[in-house]
Amino acid sequence: MGVETRKRTDTLDAAGNTTAAVGKGFAIGSAALVAFALYGAFLTRSANFNLKWYITKVDIMNPYVFFGLLVGAVLPYVFSALCLRAVG
User: For an engineered disulfide with 46, which of 18, 22, 51, 75 has Cβ 3.0 to 4.6 Å away?
Assistant: First the structure.
């Protein structure tokens, strides 16, 4: 194949890699939200079974705690992205 063909296939390959990375980011984000939702549902249901004594450390129903957990979950990805950007 010629140089022109190689240039076009490299562009398509880069677009495919970017699309895959964005899809993985959405998957990770949705998994984190689902985990928080399941934990919130567990807290709600545990109140019905008098298990409040068991769950006292993390109150995900508090908006400040929920926001803090989201920010804390995102920070490793932010720093990893900054490191990759610095190397690239």
Answer: 51
